[in-house]
Write a structure and sequence with these properties.
binds magnesium ion, six-stranded parallel β-sheet, 229 residues, Rossmann fold, alpha/beta, 9 helices, two-stranded antiparallel ribbon
């Protein structure tokens, strides 16, 4: 059996910036810091890492319970942002078809590998009806470090599949961080340039395969079936 861990933003869906806006407003509402995400690049980072960078830039100490308050506010705002910007939300090309195919194939088990806190990931996948494909995952709420959260996703996959090992583990993601940390966790990486990185930028990080999008279902499945990690 082969495990495939999917990143969320820029890989499965595009929220039209809902996550970033919710984050930025949460920092403003809770810490009184406007535009806290200015100069903070979000892609591929875990939520708590983004938060720490933003607080550091604003010269704020990370006081006890601050993260919890920020994340409660973030979740509230994220739900609002997603509900009020539905026209900007999209499931990325080929995603739904690929997930249906993989889910129906007993040779594969699907999970998430994302820097989002789990409730954030679930809220973002909900409008696209994609949560049903993913029973488990490694999340930004599990670890600050992306390699660690991918490893947690693999452990949960082993538990879900009731086995000791997988024939191969894949990470599918849209940023250099998905590639670097996927490799660190021992996974083969399928990079997809539907996020904010171009195909050449991703190829420079040496993923096992890089594609413009997930539209070519057969080509993607061929790679996932034929490649080992
Ligand atoms: Mg991403």
């Amino acid at each position: 059996m082969r495990l495939i861990l999917f990143d969320v933003d820029g890989t499965l869906i595009n929220t039209g910036g809902a996550g970033g806006r919710a984050f930025s407003k949460a920092i403003e509402n809770v810490c009184g810091v406007p535009d806290g995400l200015r100069d903070v690049r979000l892609d591929g980072k875990t939520d708590f890492l983004i938060l720490r960078e933003a607080l550091e830039k604003a010269g704020k100490q990370n006081e006890p319970r601050l993260e919890e308050r920020l994340f409660n506010e973030y979740m509230r705002l994220l739900e609002n942002e997603l509900a009020s910007n539905r026209s900007a939300y999209e499931v990325l090309p080929g995603v739904r078809k690929l997930l249906v195919r993989l889910k129906a194939d007993s040779g594969f088990i699907l999970g998430l590998g994302t820097g989002n806190v789990e409730p954030g990931a679930r809220a973002k996948l909900e409008p696209g009806g994609l949560n049903r494909f993913f029973g488990f995952g490694g999340f930004g709420s599990d670890h600050l470090d992306r390699t660690d959260l991918i490893n947690t996703g693999i452990e949960r996959g082993l538990k879900a599949a009731a086995r000791d090992s997988f024939e191969a583990v894949f990470v599918v993601g849209d940023t250099p961080r998905d590639i670097i940390h996927g490799h660190e966790a021992g996974a083969a990486v399928l990079a997809v340039s539907t996020g904010s990185y171009s195909l050449p930028e991703l190829e420079r990080c040496n993923p096992e395969k890089a594609v413009p999008d997930l539209e070519e279902t057969e080509l993607v499945i061929e790679f996932l079936t034929g490649s080992n990690s």
